[in-house]
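Progress narrative, Year 2. Work on G-protein coupled receptors family 1 profile domain-containing protein from Capitella teleta advanced from sequence curation to structure prediction during this period.
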Amino acid sequence: MMSSVSITEDPQSTEAVLPLDKEPIFTPTDSALLIALAFTGAFTNMCVMLTLVSKKSLKMRSNWILVIHQSFTDFTSSVFVFFSYVTIHFQQSHVTGTLGVVYCKLIWSEALCMVGFFASSLNMTCLALERFIMVVFPSTYHEASLFKVKMTIVFIWTLSIVLAIPTGFSSMIDEHDFCQYGFFMGSMHLHQIYIILANCITFYIPILLMAFSYSYIFKVVRNRNRMLHPEAGPHLSKFSRSHMNLIMTSALMTTLFVVTWTPNQLYNSLYSYGFPLTYNDKWYSLSLMVVQLSSCLNPLIYVIKIKELRAAIMSQTNCLSRKTQVMDLAIIGRSTMDGGSYM
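Result:
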């Protein structure tokens, strides 16, 4: 995902020049749809995240931490998109003062949104690599500490912020106090290199790593089952099902990631290679909505595949139902007593 602003080059300058009467980034309908998707993604991921965290048996197991963190990154990216596009809708691009500079570089440039999306992509990659180590090198995996998993999370967010910084620094305020998007370090070629590098780190390389990891995982698990199942009996079958369910959950999320992110990343790649595309195009806004859709659908995968999550949700639902019944009985009892006092 890159900034949604069209760039044109002045032949007498290396900086970007945008016409002041340019079309808005998104139409009101596009903005409303994106904001609605962001709100849905934030709400559903918050529910899943809080439910998983409430299960003490899950949040302290290293093989679940990155799953919970994936829900957190999707929640964060959705909040960032919601906040950014609601702000852009009301503020537009005319700004003043120090807060205006912060607004242009952090929100209008979409740098804040990119941090969340990058973190989601990188966590998905780490999740695939973790599953790979868990299956292929089980002894090494069991030696991994919670500290190492937490350091992985720190690395994810640090790299996401670093990758988004050039986008923020590329935005500027012109003499008319309008936000405009320029080239990184004033160079169109450096900016194209940055886009290609960011796309490779957050999409193309992750796809290769995830495809290799899950294909190798399924191959190893299939071979082990063929070799050991006759001797191990139902115990191995149960062990394999529990691990395969966790692996399948991650694999489904990866498939969704590839399907929903590919249009946007291809658009950015074609733009960086000089194709006559603009970020005010209808297809770009649609591709960004599809990216946001992945954050909305991941919670559905959690509910379908994670038995513990379904049980926790059912437990909370039953608890709320019982509380509602108790409150209703209390209200009825109080009404009866009040009615009796007037007789």
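The CA atoms of residues 313 and 319 lie 10 Å apart. The chain has one domain: 28-333.
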